[in-house]
User: What shape does this take?
Amino acid sequence: MKRRRRNGFTLIEAVAVIALVGVIAAGLAPIIIAVVDVWELVSFREERGAEARIAIDWMKREMRETKDTSSILTADTSEFRFYDAADNDIRYHISGGSLYRNNNILAGNIQSLAFRYYNSSNTQLSTPVSAALRSAIRRIEIDLTISAGRENLTLSSGIYLRNFL
Assistant: This one.
């Protein structure tokens, strides 16, 4: 009698392999889900951070070009309005979670925007800066807080007003 050659798996072997793969997948699923969640958070945070950095750089570049000491129209904690060297009326403020330059959105998911103003002796001026003291502003500090997923990210920067030195 010839022995028959086996060409496949038995049902028990197939069930055992499926059960083993299921156990391994069940053990790895929480790890894979956690890795994907972290990747999404980091990616989202990087995107929001880049958007906020671009917005702050834009603000700094334009604010640095404030025309002269009489061209600052508003210097408040959450708003700065001025004329630049080309006599453009520029206003930075937040509304509805967005950072605005005049009526254009610079960045979204903004939690807060704070300006701090300093005179030539590096003394902080109280806000809102009165019309009489606006000409004394020489340096501005900007704090921009964005919502990045479940966290907030605060970016800070400062500038010296170029045409005031």
